[in-house]
């Protein structure tokens, strides 16, 4: 049941009775509370991201001590998981990458040509270029210059799998690409060893979500994140970035502050009226 007209009138009179300093103080205090809530959400995200960073740091530091037969597979799995974490590739997109899909001279850091992107039903694969941000350029430079050639297949022509298995293709050509199951297992083993509390929960797709959330907290807009991830619709991207409620309220408060600034001016004077003007 709605409020009576008398109750609404009393509430309006009470609100209007507040002095301008009181109203300003209320707005400022609301902004402070929203900033505190947003800061807490950022700290929670930072703690989760620090655990992911610690996992990949331990994984990378472990690689030099692995025997040669196991080193190639361990390094390949690390590169695949790093692509999920840093630029949010899907696992099937990662499997389909070839050596020639790395355009080192494109853009400022290089580009990955994703040919097997997920498309709408019946539309076929949707291709895109993925900038090598967040250290992906250095990762691929290390992989291609120091590790990939040790697999022993022919890389000329660029048609060789970027992340190969140890088994030759049935046609007698190059090596087959590592399958999705193999790459999932590589990540699962690393999580079990260096982040056991998340064992069974941290899979390739959550890493893609972590990538989107991290880039959003770093200041990247939803449109750019959606283009990086290969999304067609922004609502899909919005589900990935896990925007906390405090962030929404803070943005709303910031928008209200900007509107109030345009209407009242810097000194609280309504726009279009000088300090000594007549109200008539």
Order of helices and strands: HHHHEEEHEEHHHHH
**Averaged pLDDT, please?**
79
Give the tally of β-strands.
5
The gross shape turns out to be globular
Radius of gyration: 27 Å
Distance from N terminus to C terminus (CA atoms, Å) equals 41 Å
**Stretches where pLDDT falls below 50 for ≥5 residues?**
273-280
Architecture blueprint of SSEs:
Blueprint: H1 5-17, H2 20-62, H3 68-87, H4 91-95, E1 102-103, E2 111-114, E3 128-131, H5 136-147, E4 164-168, E5 175-177, H6 180-194, H7 204-217, H8 222-229, H9 234-241, H10 245-264
Antiparallel strand pairs: 1-2, 2-3, 4-5
List keywords for this structure.
mainly alpha, 280 residues, two-stranded antiparallel ribbon, 56% helix, globular, single chain, three-stranded antiparallel sheet
Can you tell me about this structure?
It is a single chain. With 280 residues, the chain is mostly helical. Helices cover 56% and strands 6% of the residues. It contains ten helices and five strands. The strands form two sheets. It has a three-stranded antiparallel β-sheet. Strands 4-5 form a two-stranded antiparallel sheet. Helix 3 crosses helix 7. It is globular and about 70 Å long. The C terminus is likely disordered.
Give a concise summary.
The protein is mostly helical and about 280 residues long. It has helices at about 5-15, 20-60, 70-85, 90-95, 135-145, 180-195, 205-215, 220-230, 235-240, 245-265, and strands spanning about 100-105, 110-115, 130, 165-170, 175.
């Amino acid at each position: 049941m709605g409020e009576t007209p008398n109750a609404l009138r009393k509430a309006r009179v009470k609100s209007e009775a507040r002095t301008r300093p009181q109203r300003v103080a209320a707005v400022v205090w609301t902004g402070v509370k929203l900033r505190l809530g947003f800061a807490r959400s950022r700290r929670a995200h930072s703690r989760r991201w620090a655990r992911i960073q610690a996992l990949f740091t331990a994984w990378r530091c472990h690689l030099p001590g692995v025997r040669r037969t196991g080193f190639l597979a361990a390094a390949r799995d690390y590169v695949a998981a790093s692509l999920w974490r840093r630029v949010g590739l899907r696992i099937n997109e990662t499997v389909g990458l070839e050596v020639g899909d790395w355009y080192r001279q494109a853009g400022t850091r290089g580009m990955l040509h994703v040919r097997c992107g997920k498309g709408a039903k019946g539309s076929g694969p949707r291709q895109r270029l993925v900038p090598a941000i967040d250290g992906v350029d250095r990762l691929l430079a290390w992989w291609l210059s120091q590790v990939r050639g040790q697999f022993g297949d022919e890389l000329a022509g660029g048609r060789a799998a970027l992340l190969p298995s140890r088994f030759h293709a049935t046609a007698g050509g190059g090596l087959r690409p590592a399958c999705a199951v193999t790459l999932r297992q590589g990540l699962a083993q690393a999580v079990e060893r260096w982040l056991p509390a998340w064992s069974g929960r941290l899979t390739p797709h959550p890493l893609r979500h972590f990538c989107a959330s991290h880039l959003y907290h770093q200041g990247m807009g939803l449109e750019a994140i959606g283009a990086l991830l290969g999304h067609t619709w922004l609502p899909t991207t919005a589900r990935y970035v896990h925007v906390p409620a405090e962030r929404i309220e803070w943005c709303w408060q910031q928008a209200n502050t900007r509107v109030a600034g345009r209407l009242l001016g810097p000194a609280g004077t309504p726009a279009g009226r000088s300090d000594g003007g007549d109200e008539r």
